[in-house]
Write a structure and sequence with these properties.
With 176 residues, the protein is mainly alpha-helical. The protein has one domain. The chain contains six helices and no strands. The longest helix has 38 residues. The N and C termini lie close together (11 Å). The mean pLDDT is 94. Pfam families: Anthrone_oxy (PF08592). This is DUF1772 domain-containing protein.
């Protein structure tokens, strides 16, 4: 049935899937590929990729999931036990801390540090030091946000499979 509640939960699932898929694809292809290139090429590539990803399509899914997950969780609240609500609450917490939070407070500061690095005028030693300072922490944080994103997606999918409670006061308003 096409209701506001269902539109919101499906939209949350889609935006979560898009971000989880992006991070998963990076883990499977970009990170292993870049690990094989020279220090200069690695830093130059990461600078360009980090600049290119700041676009409306990325923000729509990345921030969209951060907004839609709490909204669909709120809509599913019920004073009685409701598996859908608890799954969505768990998904929201994991996404906001493990994906959104790790990105905002971990990966983005590293990206900003790298963006300020004067690659074209740096010595080979400085370039090697910057890669050593950047790559391992960035990949570690990326792995955390990827795993959190996949867990979030699984929880949202399972929540979609659970019946919506008939007693959820907010959900019943959203059904009309």
């Amino acid at each position: 049935m096409l209701t506001f509640s269902n539109i919101i939960i499906v939209s949350a699932a889609v935006t979560t899937a898009l971000i989880s898929g992006l991070f998963y694809a990076w883990s499977c292809s970009v990170i292993p590929g870049l690990s094989k290139v020279s220090d200069y090429t690695y830093l130059e590539s990461m600078q360009q990729i980090n600049r290119a990803i700041l676009n409306p399509v990325f923000f729509m899914s990345f921030i969209g999931a951060a907004l839609l997950l709490p909204l669909c969780t709120y809509i599913q609240y019920s004073p009685t036990f409701n598996a859908r609500f608890w799954l969505l609450l768990s998904a929201t917490i994991i996404y906001l801390t493990g994906t959104f939070g790790v990105t905002a407070f971990g990966n983005v500061p590293l990206n900003d540090m790298l963006d300020q690095f004067p690659l074209t005028t740096a010595s080979l030693q400085d370039i090697a030091r910057m890669r050593a300072r950047f790559e391992q922490p960035w990949v570690y944080l990326h792995t955390i946000r990827t795993v959190a994103g996949v867990i979030t997606l699984v929880l949202v999918i399972v929540a979609c499979l659970c019946p919506a409670p008939a007693t959820a006061p907010i959900a019943s308003l959203a059904r009309s």
